[in-house]
TrEMBL record:
One of its GO terms (cellular component) is cytoplasm. Belongs to the methyltransferase superfamily. The gene is Mettl13. One of its GO terms (biological process) is methylation. Residues 429-449 are annotated as: Disordered. This is eEF1A lysine and N-terminal methyltransferase. GO terms for molecular function: methyltransferase activity. Keywords: Methyltransferase, Multifunctional enzyme, Transferase. Residues 50-173 form the Methyltransferase domain. Residues 434-444 have a biased composition (Basic residues).
């Protein structure tokens, strides 16, 4: 500890460094890694015939090793410490005759202009730029000006640094103003996490003649795993890219030492596009007793199934990790914008990276298994991508489910982990590489649906509960005839389609604010309008308000399945305006006295949820709730009169009678959908 300075300013003092090197003796002091780690980067920018200047050389072995391996011999080393210069002259003088050590201040060098092809700095800039005081910044400007002066045009300033944000920003901004090309390399780690947790970087600043006017900046970064540089558009983006790599290094260090109490999530991005390619979640299971073979495993989530409860929620992943029987499980989700070469290709691509997330105590040379469902990476086919002025970017895709069936999904990319609408396809699509039975069968065009939609199957559990809520309607018969239903929120159209197709007496009006969704539902989800089905492109708030004023008490059922575009609110369905008291009173106005208002509520904010429930109770005297297992969704059934209340036995009986009436000849019914079961978990609030 006595070797450390009393203040950061002493890093620029020759007296401090004389004392430092006298106390340390002959032992080399290596700032930021040794020659083997730096060699791959230095080899790209230092040629054998180059004249190299090393500023702030200290007693590092770097120059000696560069000389000894033949990388370069014409090396001049300077330092402000007389003690270390004499020490290094004694150590290298006779062994390396072409290399010299000079006592010199790099802020005021004696060399003529354009003397060197390379200036090498290993930690010196970091030692000087310890703060952002005016005097410190002036000293750094002087250092950079001297380096610029002694470098030839086309010469390289190589600065080895930990790349603190203020240090990197200062270097980048200075040399960009001078018209230099700036490239930042991340140095490959030696695996020794004890010396430095943070990664080491090398700034490569290449000198060009300054062009009058504003020349375009050239800024690049080279991550450690690749040679090809990636262009970035600004100094801020370059600093941010370096910061991301520093955070990742800190995370890996933390994970290698202690189990993680909470699940850790991170994205691995594509090298070319910079877009996320893999999303990883690190899940530790303290209950699993460690043995040689169950420390660590990787689980590849099949494409298109990342939104399922088991893979898309913390509790689901926790159960997955526990059932897999590994102390640490890393789940890997694949992104729809990316192409993957099967399980073997993914394993080859990820093997090195995921080992950086290995748990403490993993035996050396332990083989880490890659797991998946059924041993494959699943199937995902993007059918349609577009952008709506109201809903933003969205995608329609077909994915292989857990079994032989395929499903079509609508996903808003602003909330890509939520399936907005889903429908089952009637005929399974062929697996990739599967041979066709007949040569005359044409491959489905990506622009058109390959098969019909199974309208008898409701994929979403909350839709099943919403339909079951129709059993609450009054009267001696299971359902009134005719049945007037208003659905606010179209999506893919599965809910209104099911009501239309199975309730032959139903007349369904749908309100959808986004005309793009009507086009999507019609083209991709088998939706169509007719005498008993009409879509009104309108804001649901305005449409209901107009109905309340002009035609009250006309609907037997009103259903709200509307998503919120504001992701900052803790309620993603419906938008807050749809559950404000004045608007709910309008909803009550358009309901018949024995009607039912069915609301899909998705609210993660407990306080907000209680407020919504309290407001609903103020407007509707009778309120039932049905929670959807494994999901945040909660279906609320609201009725305008307490006289509509039914006991569970009566509800179950009505549900069974209604289901029998709906099972029409030639009209298939999903056997797993039992209306009475849907109502068993209904509770009165």
């Amino acid at each position: 500890m006595e070797l450390l300075p009393r203040s950061p300013g002493e890093f620029g003092s020759s007296r401090y460094w004389d004392r430092f090197f006298r106390q340390r003796g002959q032992r080399p002091f290596e700032w930021y890694g040794a020659f083997p780690e730096l060699c791959p980067v230095l080899h790209k920018y230092v040629r054998p015939r180059d004249k190299v200047l090393v500023v702030g050389c200290g007693n590092s072995e770097l120059s000696e090793q560069m000389y000894d391996v033949g990388m370069c011999e014409d090396i001049v080393n300077i330092d402000i410490s007389d003690a270390v210069i004499r020490q290094m002259q004694e150590r290298s003088g006779s062994k390396r005759p072409k290399m010299s050590y000079l006592l010199m201040d790099m802020l005021q060098m004696d060399f003529p202009d354009a003397q060197f092809q390379v200036v090498l700095d290993k930690g010196t800039l970091d030692a000087i730029l310890t703060d952002q005081e005016e005097a410190t910044l002036a000293k750094v400007d002087k250092m950079f000006a001297e380096i610029s002066r002694v470098l030839q045009v086309g010469g390289r300033y190589l600065c080895v640094s930990l790349a603190q944000a203020h240090v990197l920003k200062k270097a980048v901004e200075y040399f960009c103003r001078e018209g230099w090309v700036v490239r930042v390399h991340q140095v490959a780690s030696s695996g020794d996490k004890q010396q430095f947790v943070l990664p080491v970087f090398v700034y490569v600043m290449t000198k060009f003649r300054k062009i009058p006017g504003s020349a375009p900046q050239i800024l690049e970064i080279c991550p450690e795993e690749q040679d090809k540089p990636m262009r970035v558009e600004s100094a801020e983006r370059l600093v941010a890219a370096v910061k991301d790599r520093q955070h990742y290094a800190l995370l890996c260090s933390q994970l290698s030492k202690t189990p993680c109490g909470e699940q850790v999530s991170l994205d691995l991005c594509d090298r070319e596009s910079g877009r996320p390619r893999y999303t990883l979640h690190v899940v530790d299971s303290p209950s699993v007793k460690p043995s040689r073979d169950n420390h660590f495993a990787i689980f590849i989530i099949p494409q298109g199934r990342e939104t399922e409860w088991l893979f898309g929620t913390e509790e689901g992943r926790r159960q997955l990790a526990a059932s897999a029987g590994f102390g640490r499980l890393v789940t890997v989700a694949l992104h729809r914008e990316q192409h993957y070469e099967g399980m073997a290709g993914i394993q080859a691509e990820l093997s090195g990276k995921v080992m950086e997330l290995a748990p403490p105590g993993l035996p050396a040379r332990q083989q880490v298994p890659f797991l998946s469902v059924g041993g494959d990476i699943g199937v995902r086919t993007v059918r349609h991508c577009d952008t709506s002025p109201l809903s933003g970017e969205y995608v329609v895709e077909d994915v292989k489910g857990d079994g032989t069936f395929y499903f079509r999904r609508l996903i808003f990319l602003s909330n890509r982990n939520v399936v907005q609408s889903e429908a089952r396809l009637l005929a399974p699509m062929p697996l990739p590489g599967q041979k066709k039975r007949r040569k005359d069968k044409k491959k489905p065009s990506p622009a058109e649906p390959p098969v019909a939609i199974d309208k008898s199957y409701l994929c979403c559990e909350h839709h099943k509960a919403m339909v079951a809520g129709l059993c609450l309607l009054g009267g001696p018969d299971p359902l009134p005839a005719p049945l007037a239903v208003l659905v606010v929120g179209l999506g893919g159209g599965s809910l209104p389609l099911f009501v239309h197709d199975y309730f032959s007496q139903a007349h369904v009006a749908v309100v959808e604010i986004d005309p793009s969704m009507l086009e999507v539902a019609t083209r991709w989800f088998g939706f169509s309008q007719g005498d008993r089905m009409r879509v009104h492109v309108s804001d649901g708030l305005d449409y209901v308000a107009k109905l309340a004023a002009e035609a009250p008490a006309q609907y037997d059922a009103v259903m709200f399945d509307v998503d919120s575009k504001d992701l900052t609110v803790g309620m993603s369905c419906p938008p807050p305006a749809f559950v404000e008291k004045p608007f709910l009173q309008k909803v009550k106005t358009i309901l018949k006295p024995e009607g039912v208002f069915v609301l899909n509520l998705v609210c993660r904010d407990a306080q907000l949820k209680q407020s919504v429930l309290a407001t609903l109770r103020e407007v509707f005297p009778l309120l039932y709730t049905r929670r959807i297992e494994g999901e945040v969704n909660e279906i609320l059934f609201c009725q305008p009169s307490p006289e509509c209340q039914r006991d569970p036995t009566e509800l179950g009986a009505r549900a069974r009678v209604l289901e029998e009436a709906l099972r029409q000849p030639g009209h298939p019914w999903d056997s797993s959908y039992v209306l009475a079961d849907m109502l068993q978990a209904v509770k009165i609030l």
